[in-house]
Amino acid sequence: MWLPLAAVAQDVHYDWQSVRIGGGGYVSGLVFHPAEKGLYYARTDVGGAYRWDDAAKKWLPLTDWLGADDANLTGIGSMAVDPHDTGWIYLAAGTYTTEAAGNGAILRSHDRGATFQRVDLPFKLGGNELARGNGERLAVDPHDGRILFFGSRDAGLWRSDDHAAHWARVDAFPAVATSFASTAKNQWRRQPIGIVFVVFEPASGKSGEPTPVLYAGVSTRETSLFRSTDGGKSWQAVPGQPTGLRPTHMRRSADGSYYLTYGDEPGPDDMNDGAVWKFTPADDRWTDITPIPRNGKPSGFGWGDITVDAHDPRILMASTFCHYTPYDEIYRSTDGGQHWQPVFPRSTFDHSNARWTADHHPHWMSSLVIDPFDPDHVMFVTGYGVWASRNMRAFDHGGTVDWWFQDTNLEETVPLGLASPAEGAHLLSAVGDLDGFRHDDLDVAPLQFAAPPRYANGYSIDVAGNAPRVVVRTGRIRGSVDAVRAAYSLDGASTWHAFASEPGGKGEGTVAVAADGRSALWFPLDAGNAYVTRDWGKHWNAAEGLPKAARVLADRVDAQRFYAQDITTGALFASHDGGLHFSAIDGAFGDAVKQQYQAPHRPTNAVVYAVPGQAGELVAISARGGVIHGSDDGRVLRQSHGIDSAVSLGFGKPAPGHSESALFLAGAIDGQRGLFRSIDGGAQWQRVNDDAHQYGEVGYVTGDPRVFGRVYFATGGRGIFRGDPKGEQP
Question: Which keywords are on file for this protein (predicted)?
C-alpha cells in the first residue's frame, strides 16, 4: 500500500525534561562575571553552553535552540563576558576542524543567553579537539565593550569593533600562530591549536577608549607569549619568557602580576611535562613557582589552570593535568606561590547528586576558579562535570574542604543506544564513556549498570520482545584484552553477567536477543561474521550467509527470526532458524531499502527496525528520506512519501482507539527538521518539538510501550531527553 504524501498536522505541544544522569561530559571552561555575584557560565566540548541560575541552584542550557543543521556549533571553543555589562555573553561555537565540518560562528547575546544572534566566521573551530580546555581565546576589552579579540586555531588573531557583529584579521600578529609549530597530534591526525588565550591589561588605558596593553598566547614550545601596547596593532614577544612548553592559561592578579600554566602538549589527550610561572610586567621578570619542582627533568604530567583570589593576590590555586599516577591534584598557596599544599588529601566529596561519580577521580582539570565574590566558593571542571566547594578557606586553618558535584541540570553525555521495556524500568541506555544506566526514576541520577562487567563505553543494548526482563548489551573495556565485551541480564538490568566467552573480533559491535530471551546473536566489531549462542557464550555457532560487517536485530515476536543489515550496501538479510542461516531479503522491499541507503553508517545507527507485535514485519528508514514498511519475504506493505530525511525511528504505546504502535521520527518533513509523531502508521505526522527545543543532532529515538505519547531520544552531547504531551493524560 502506498500512502499519500506525508501530511504534517497541527503540532502537538510537549514538555521536555532531561533524563537525569548527572553530568558525564567534559566541561571545558568556566567564566565568572566580575560585576555580579552568582552570575557565571560553563562551556562544554560537545554539549553547548550553560548559565548558572543562582536562585534555582541549577544550570540553564543556552544553546538547545541549535538544530541538526547546526549541530557542529554545539561544541563551544571559548566564551567571554563584558566585565562592565552583565547582559553580554559571547560564545565561540564550532566542534571540529575536519574537512567535513562547517565553519564556526560567534553566538552573541545581550540578555545573558536568553536569545542569540549568530555571526558566521570564515574559519573552523575545534570545541571538541585538542586544547579545548585552554583559554580563553575570546576576550572583551574592559574599557570599551564594543571591542573583542579572538584567537583562532589556524587563521591567526581576529578583532571586532562592534560587539562581535563583524570581524577582521589582525595581520600584524606573529606568523607562529599559524605555523606548524602551533599544531599537535592526537591518535588520528594533526590538529591546529593556534592562539589559546587573549588577556587585556585593565590597568592600562581609560574608560571609553581601547585598552592599549593586551597579551596573546600561542600553543607552541617556541616563543609563545606576545604583547601589544597599541591596542593590538603591533605585537612583540615578551622578553625572558620560558620556552620548551606550551602555555595553557594566563591569569591576572589584583597586584598586576600574571600567572601562567604550561604543558608539553595542549591536552586533554596527554601531557607529560609542565610548569607554573609568575610574570611581573613592571620589570618583565619571570619566576618558576611550579608546586612540584621538576628538578631539571620531565615531570610526567602538566598543569591545567591557575586561579587567584580577586581580593588577596597571595592566594593561588593550581591544578595538575594527566597526573594519573597516583591521581590529579589541586595545590593551594597562601604566600604567592612560595609554598604549596595539596588540597585533596584533606577533602571530602559528596557524590549524592550523581552517585556514579564515586568511581571517578577528578581529571582533565582545565578550568579552576575562585569566585570573585566569595573566596570560599571554588569550582573546577573535570572530564565528567563540575565540582565546587563552599568552605575553601577552612583548608588554610587545618580543616577539611567539602566538595559537591555541581552539575544539576548540566547533562552532557552521548548515548549510543536506548531501550524502553514493557515491564520493569522505563528506560535502559548504553552511554558513551559511562557504560549505561537503568532508570527506575527518570528524575534521579542512578548508579551505572551493576558490575561486573564495567564498560568504559556502552555501545549496543537490546531487550527481548516477549521476555522484557532479558537484556543484552555490548561495550568497551579499557586496558583489559581478556574481558568479555558483551553481557546479559535476566532481571531487567538489575544484575549482569558477562558472556562466558567471545566468538572473535575486537568486541563491542551490535547484539540482539531472541524474542523469547533464550538465545542471542552477536556481530562483534571486526569479527567478519555474526555468532549465535543459546547458553550465554559457552558455545557459539557462526551464522551463515552474512556480509563481513552488519548490524543485527531480533524479531519482536518470533524467537526464530533474526535480521541483519549490511552497513556498506544497506542490503537486508533474514534468518528463520534462530540466526544460524541467513538469506537476502530481495523483492520490492529489499530493493527499496538498498536504493535509499546512504553509506557510511556506524554499526549502531539503526536504519531497519523490527515492528513490535508483528512477526516478520520490518520498517526501514534512511537519511535520504522515506519510511518503508515491509515483510521479510520482500514485500512492501506500505511506504510514506514526502519525508525529506529520517535519522531514527521509535515505537510507542498505541493511541487510544488504535492498535498500531505510535511512531516517533527524528528527521525532516516538508522542509521542517524536528521530532515527529504518527498514530496512524505514518499517514500523518505531527511535530512534537519546537524551534527552542532542538538539541542539535537527535540520535536514537524510542517511545514508551506503557505510556502513550511518551518519547525518549538521545542527543550528540545533551544526554537523554524524555517528552510527554501537554494535555494528553499519560
Answer: Carbohydrate metabolism, Glycosidase, Hydrolase, Polysaccharide degradation, Signal
